[in-house]
Give the backbone structure.
Amino acid sequence: MTSNPRPVLFVSAENCENHSDQVSFLKGWSVNAVDGIQNARRTIKENKYNVGLIHLEQSDGNGISDAEALIHENSAIEWVLLTNNECLKQHKFCKLIREGCYDFYTLPFNSTAESSLQSTLGHAYGMASLNSENTIESYDDYEMVGTSQQMLSLFASIRKVASVDASVLITGESGTGKELIARAIHERSARNNELFIAVNCGAIPENLIQSELFGHEKGAFTGAHQLKIGQIEAADGGTLLLDEIGDLPLTLQVNLLRFLQEQAIQRVGATSEIGVNVRVLAATHVDLDLAVSEGRFREDLLYRLNVLQVQSPALREREQDIELLARFFFNRFKPEGNNRLKGFSNSALIAIEQYQWPGNVRELINRIRRAIVMSEGRMISTTDLGLGNSGPPDSCSVISLDQARQDAEQNAIISALRYCRNNMTKSAKVLGVSRVTLYRMIEKYQLGKIPDDR
């Protein structure tokens, strides 16, 4: 939550009595009330507002056209219209709401409407803030979006670790945007004019990883017809992301440790070392401390990688951002759907808020894009999102949070396998994990071939 009240502009349209006292219940907001559209224009020039309320209950005169002009002149502000039921029967009022407003409310307020308006203004404020440096990071057409405390803390951590040149370990569940964090660190570092190279350690066959990372000389082995520059050497001067570092075989961990210690590599088949200047970032969804205790990961390598650490929060831990993200990605991918599509139904928004999102932001994006393409109505429904059964559990069937997460993970794997017709490569890509990890999960849950019900 913000420490200072957030400003909101309250505009009482011409010929309307000023009713700013009707929104005096708003907590955490500094309401600036003005009378008339012209006064509103002057106030907007002098102050910055993310959200605005327009009180308009008269359909005669120039009230609607003046309000429409104010809204279109200040499209960066998210507007909420306060009106009455009679006005909503008129086409021009509905057109104003549909084309220019974030939402609307009918007067007088009851306690439910007061609570709802408070929530709406919060979401609208977040949407209007998306272009702010503090709420969105954009790299190569990818975005990290959020106004929650978790994301603001993450943005602050990115800036801190970007200012130094030490190794960084980025941890978090699959689908939370660990590569985006790595790109953000690179873009804000002194190396931002050099290459950023990402290597998925879990997606490369074990017999090719050494050649992929360190390169090889011509004739080093059968099939090595020419010299190959490895990804570490290619990133010289820039940043190297070792994604899914937890899937790196133990035999390769020794070579990687030596590189981190000496800042030098030796190509396969070479007799001398080559010095390289690379900043190494590593990302994993695996608990590396547990992997060390089980003998699957070298403790000394973990110490080398984990000089600085950044945690990528799970989507379910960012409840404040879920609807914000849904609306953001809806606006981004809306051109892929039909022209009549306007947004989410109320039941869809409830389902989005209640769903646990085991696949995190990646799953949210996939569901919204699929819903946009497949929806035939004006509003995206729970069915379009595939969240028809996402309501709260029956009170008689309460389970532990750990069991709920395992159930959600298992259901996500089954859904991906069914959707991809048991194609492991495609399923792993949909889930945002390596094939090695997917096979491990299938073994964990003892899943056989999933029947294709299409």
